[in-house]
# Entry
Amino acid sequence: MSELKRTPLYPLYAEISGVRCIDFGGWDLPVQFSGIHKEHEAVREAAGLFDVSHMGEFMVSGPKAESFIQLVTVNDVTALVPGQAQYSAMCYPDGGVVDDLLVYKLEEQSYMLVVNASNIEKDWEWLQQHLSDGVQMTNQSEETALLALQGPKAEDIIAPLVDADLAKLGAFHFLQHVTLFGASVLISRTGYTGEDGFEIYLPSENAPAVWKGLLEHGVAHGLLPAGLGARDTLRFEAKLPLYGQELSKEISPLEGGIGFFVKLNQADDFIGKEALQQQKNDGIPRKLVGVEMIDRGIPRSHYPVYAGDTQIGEITTGTQSPTLKRNLGLALIESSYAAIGTQVEVDVRGKRLKAEVVSAPFYKRARKGADSK
# Structure
């Protein structure tokens, strides 16, 4: 049995009473520090600080870097200017998803791809298969730490600590070479919680000092360290997809609810474009929808969803919403049953319980900053 990987902040977890770690895709990560609901509430009302240093960072550069990324991702990378990022996905030729990711344009001919931790090796191999002359790629995942400061008080907490005007930093924009507690960091107005906030990329060796500094400074604003449990309930309420649940090799980006980011009308071809165009032309067979339980019960991942005696799909993610106190789920179901108000049944541990298709995202904040993966 291989040893679990650990982030540069792992030694600091023990300093926080109540921390509980789990095996998450081969990483020993905190599922909670003080309690999932308490951390969730802190992010919705004040702020939470997440250690997401397990994410992968690939640097792509060279005269052909833009055309390479354009080939392997579904969004239009030519629309980016230096200092701007975009959410995207990589697809197989049949339209299934290799991974969803963020693309950062650092400067002309220089990019950073941020991929999911569980897919780092797979993504690297996939990209290497399509690498061409004029493109250099390096894997800087181990040297790079990532902290996510999320919540309505995030800007109030970090703005006084840096010499940059974060109030002018728009959604999906970032600043490089910003000094924070002695470290040179990249600060991006992105996140995975449905709230305003920032993601902070920095050298691994600087992560402990920045983590401690932010927590100490943020106490007065209600900042709490937050774990994977709250990260999942927060992104779920905002209908932000998780690879392996809402997106996968078997679930296309059109089915998984991120069709907005698939630029089928761009002139350039990308891997999977033909299959996705055909899927759109034929009518997308499945759709990701929100469901709310009518009968008492909580929908969980992979619970079957029925219309009459016919299974029409399954729950991808479900829980009792900490914010809304309702039993809610995201479900990938046949498109003909996806209309709001459609009555369905969810098989909860062998018992069919009534549910209804409802509007999602379940939670939307007042717009100001950015939400992404």
The domain at 57-139 is CATH 3.30.70.1400 (Alpha-Beta Plaits). The chain is about 20% helix and 35% strand. Residues 207-218 form the longest helix (12 residues).
